[in-house]
Amino acid sequence: MGTDTLLIHISQLHIDKISSKSHKSFPPEAKMSRIPRFLKSDTSTIYHIMSRTALDGYPLSDVGKEVLLELIRKFSSFYVVDVLGFALMGNHFHLAVRMHSTNEISDDAIRKRMETWYADGRFITPAAISRHKKMLTSLSHYMKSIKQAFTRYYNKTHNRRGFFWGDRFKSVIVEDGPTLINLLAYIDLNPVRAGLVQKPEDYRWNTLGYHTGNGNIDEFLNTDFGMKEWNEYDPAEILSKYREFVYETGALDTGKGKAMDSALVQAERIKKYLLTRAERFKYRTRYFTDSGIIGSKAFVQEAFDGIKHLLGSKDERRFTPVAGVKGMYSMKKLQG
User: Which of 5, 72, 102, 331 could pair with 292 in a Cys bridge, judged by C-beta atoms 3.0 to 4.6 Å apart?
Assistant: First the structure.
């Protein structure tokens, strides 16, 4: 599946429609009738989700984006959802997720999620399991959990009350395959189109930045990318071909935002879109400044045991391998 084959499936009209719809929002106090949300509950369904803040300017700072990303990771481990892609921007965010239906998960699997989530040992009844099965397969509940948790964080840290997010989130049902890969490319190219970075993986809070920064070692992101119908299943090969698709799409002048520098795209073509060891190392250098403790697993464990009382931590910690650097571990999980 080369670039030419992939580009046949690029629908510029589809990308423009996503772009034009995603940049319209209404303030929370706007009085208008709500259009019923298109949801499918009988089978797994892919959604493109977009939510914009109600505040002026760009209230999502770097720290705020890290908190929001951690909340998405946290709730995605509880809900029955696959995160396919994301981009967290200064005043809005995009998510591409696959929500699974109630008939795709057993009661026992729901029970295990509840036991992990509710660590206080509360009694889990059959009725509670039934309620949770409906809730944990609900897109609306999933988004409500993420957005309300972030609002609480933001209001507490900024000593304020009231709305943080604008009108209810927007969602679009997305077909798997060519439509999905076009959508994921659109999401990843948001920071490039906005002029924040030259290459999508240079941005810490999007899909390619996450894959490149830490190798997706926690498997937070699903690596489907809509390529299975092209019989691609090897994760490394899929990621390489996805980068190829994003770069070639980014080189197109859509009339909306900046296109990728043609020289950068040509350089990637020559390399066949493979990351060099130096590039992989560059994208992981944040471990040397923000990891807290870094070194061999034994070293990090010993150092952590000596200071964990200062952190108020009583738990045993599973340290994070630094992807691409054999035998090196970090105390903290980092975006890269």
Answer: 331
